[in-house]
Amino acid sequence: MAQKPSFSDLKLNNWIIRQCATIGIDMVDQGIQLSKHPHIVVATPGRLADHLESCKTFSLSKIKFLVLDEADRLLSGQFDEQIKTIFKELPKSRQNLFFSATITDTLEKLKEVSNKDMFYYEAPSISDAVTVEQLEQKYVLCPKDVKDAYLAQVIREFRAENEDGNIMIFTDTCKNCQVLSMTLNDVGFENVSLHAMIPQQQRLAALARFKSNTVKMLIATDVASRGLDIPTVQLVLNHTVPKVPKEYVHRVGRTARAGRVGKAVTLVTPYDIKLLQAIEEHIKTKLVELKINDSEVGKIFAQVSVTKSEAYLNLDEGDFYEKRLINKRKKWILEGLDPDEEEAKLLKKHKKKKKSKRTKEESDL
């Protein structure tokens, strides 16, 4: 998202200096650029907070405008610590601009607190529907253990009718995203992946290959569910059902854009029925079941299953999670916390979450 704005495309005056501060790019190089006092800084909360805490030559004291794009997500609680760090460094006299495609409880409370001091504008809705009419929405009911084979069959059937249409596949975690990408590549579906564990430069390169139609399939976490505008996307596949209905809307919104037609297919296991019902209630639309040829799924199940197992073996999990843990430990140290204690708490929380998930799945049966 931070990489998206292109001021050269807007042909603004050549005296405007823009600097982008995002993770995945060397902090020292960014710090040097920020010390030159750019007119505009586009940043992710985490990286901007890191610079404010570690760089004495960079300041926000002269900021006139603060813009929060995707304000619903930035104020969801996930970035509270970073937002607090940033707001502490901002001058009291400034203009705040918040942009959001969805209105959350937090934004509603912000409206109430601001009272008359806030100008609020909500773009008129074309219809009562949350998703557009040009979007064909379907679901595939399948057993959890065979879901990847069903996914491959959906792709095969789509490719039989449309060789050139771009496909976006969404899944829930970085690990699942990487494994699914490796699996589909090995069974003949060339793709690129996009998730937070991939270095920034590699992410931008993957996105460029997809946007240029060099590769026609992108597998991503919800990091790609907002802000991307790729007109050639004709099919969105939900490998996992989003737990929050609004995330479903953001995902399927990557297709059927600007009046074009598009298709969204969600893979639903018996554990996901309640999530599907919540989505249907939110979008005020019943999804239609897409029937898949079970015998064809059976033919490819063994290949997909074996390939996925090999992908798990080839994925060096230690290295895969090492960078994330290093970044967390740096953050804890900056906050004056004991990194060993915090890591132990994180491990305990992870085990508790895993146990709770297993219990919930058993109760849903």
UniProtKB/TrEMBL annotation:
Q: Where is the composition biased (Basic residues)?
A: 347-358
Query: MF terms per GO, please?
Result: ATP binding; hydrolase activity; nucleic acid binding; RNA helicase activity
Q: Name one GO cellular component term.
A: cytosol
**UniProt region (Disordered), positions on chain:** 346-365
Q: Name one Pfam family in it.
A: Helicase_C
Q: Which residues form the Helicase ATP-binding domain?
A: 12-121
The question of whether Nuclease is a record keyword is answered with no
Helicase C-terminal domain residues are 150-298
Q: Which family does it belong to?
A: Belongs to the DEAD box helicase family.
Classify the source by domain of life.
Answer: Eukaryota
Family matches, as CDD domains: SF2_C_DEAD
| Name used for this protein in its record | Probable ATP-dependent RNA helicase DDX49 isoform X3
Matching InterPro entries, A to Z? DEAD/DEAH_box_helicase_dom, DEAD_box_RNA_helicase, Helicase_ATP-bd, Helicase_C-like, P-loop_NTPase, RNA-helicase_DEAD-box_CS
Q: Which UniProt keywords apply?
A: ATP-binding, Helicase, Hydrolase, Nucleotide-binding
